[in-house]
């Protein structure tokens, strides 16, 4: 519009700021699930139960037995840029938790109707708050066990455009299952369950062997094809499994990479994986693998992407060649001749 004269600059109200921020991180129900699961893990939970209805749009409910929150901390949890995970300003450069931006709950609360019930260890009772579109409605005490239960209803009820972009409940549920899979694979010692309506989809007991958790998601076809990987140098540690070429896939979605406990997607590392299987897979086929990498936090910047799916390495060439070499050496010392997925 053609407006003459100086424009009015307006400082946006916090609810609007949070809705805008939510646009970056909270794209769909699965983003909510990812953030809530990460918070439960950061809270030291040993058990996390998730229930979804209507593809997560109607309702997402998560319950954990983590450290919980006290009554006076609870409103801070849904305040933007408020976090318990950066105790001082230097901690940003060696983040040891999955979260640290202090934005997820504030963002989710601004685009949904949320109820949080929480009780911290040593507290005589729990407390509850209800938030509707970012506004805290009714704080008060409640009876609940130590830990936290968060319910998110009617996602995007006040941002109709965003709501329109959502796909069918089945598609949204598929994304939720993927987010759940990533977190449950990254934390095999935690008991996770997932219910869709009144139907139980997963009940995953804590595991000692990672292969058992992998099997509970992908079955014996995958678990019987796992080739253990275990390699460590002064900076990069790589453990987990590469799969037999016979269980290759038509896309690279079954390449699960975890860096310091966080699921990541990284083009360069996916390329390194493809290269390490060179000659063992037909064109257009992609390897399946489950790899956990550990590196000193100062070698990684997780601050690049709001959803933290992408990371930046201070020395990406080194990480690339370490992964490639590790797998190549492993394959050299393994009899792969019977494993080559050759056409019959
Ligand atoms: P971040 O995880 O980046 O700190 P969030 O908005 O996700 O930001 O959460 C804000 C704060 O709320 C966390 O720092 C944590 O102190 C608290 N919190 C959130 N979820 C839980 C939970 N399940 N158990 C205990 N505390 C939680
Ligand atoms: Mg968080």
UniProtKB/TrEMBL annotation:
Natural source organism: Neorhodopirellula lusitana
Family per similarity comment: Belongs to the DNA mismatch repair MutL/HexB family.
Record gene name: mutL
Name the UniProt record assigns to this protein: DNA mismatch repair protein MutL
Residues of the full protein shown: 47 to 390 of 747
DNA mismatch repair protein S5 domain: residues covered: 214-332
Main function: This protein is involved in the repair of mismatches in DNA. It is required for dam-dependent methyl-directed DNA mismatch repair. May act as a 'molecular matchmaker', a protein that promotes the formation of a stable complex between two or more DNA-binding proteins in an ATP-dependent manner without itself being part of a final effector complex.
TM region(s), chain numbering: none
Keyword tags: DNA damage, DNA repair
Keyword Protease among record annotations: no
Keyword DNA damage in record: yes
Coiled coil: none
């Amino acid at each position: 519009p053609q407006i003459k004269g100086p424009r009015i600059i307006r400082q946006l109200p916090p609810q609007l700021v949070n809705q805008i921020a939510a646009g970056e991180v909270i794209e769909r129900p699965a983003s909510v699930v990812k953030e809530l699961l990460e918070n439960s893990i950061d809270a030291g939970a040993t058990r996390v139960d998730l229930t979804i209805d209507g593809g997560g749009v109607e309702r997402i409910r998560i319950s954990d037995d983590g450290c919980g929150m006290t009554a006076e901390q609870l409103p801070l949890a849904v305040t933007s840029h408020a976090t318990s995970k950066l105790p001082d300003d230097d901690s940003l450069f060696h983040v040891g938790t999955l979260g640290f931006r202090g934005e997820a709950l504030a963002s989710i609360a601004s685009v949904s109707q949320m109820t949080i019930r929480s009780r911290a260890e040593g507290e005589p009772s729990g407390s509850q708050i209800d938030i509707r579109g970012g506004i805290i409605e009714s704080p008060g005490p409640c009876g609940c066990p130590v830990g936290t239960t968060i319910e998110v209803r009617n996602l995007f009820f006040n941002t109709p455009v965003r709501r329109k972009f959502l796909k069918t409940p089945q598609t949204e549920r598929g994304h939720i299952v993927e987010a759940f899979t990533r977190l449950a694979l990254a934390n095999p010692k935690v008991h996770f369950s997932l219910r869709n309506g009144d139907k139980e989809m997963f009940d995953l007991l804590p595991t000692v062997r990672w292969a058992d958790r992998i099997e509970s998601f992908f079955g014996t076809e995958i678990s019987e094809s796992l080739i253990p990987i275990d390699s460590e140098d002064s900076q990069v540690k790589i453990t987990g499994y590469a799969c037999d070429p016979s269980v290759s896939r038509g896309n690279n979605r079954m390449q699960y990479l975890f860096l310091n406990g966080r699921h990541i997607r990284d083009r360069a590392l996916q390329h390194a994986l493809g290269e390490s299987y060179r000659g063992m897979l037909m064109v257009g086929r992609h390897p399946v693998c489950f790899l956990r990498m550990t590196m000193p936090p100062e070698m990684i910047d997780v601050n690049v992407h709001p959803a933290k799916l992408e990371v930046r390495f201070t020395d990406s060439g080194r990480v690339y060649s370490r992964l490639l070499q590790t797998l190549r050496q492993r394959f050299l010392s393994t009899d792969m001749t019977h494993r080559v997925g050759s056409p019959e």
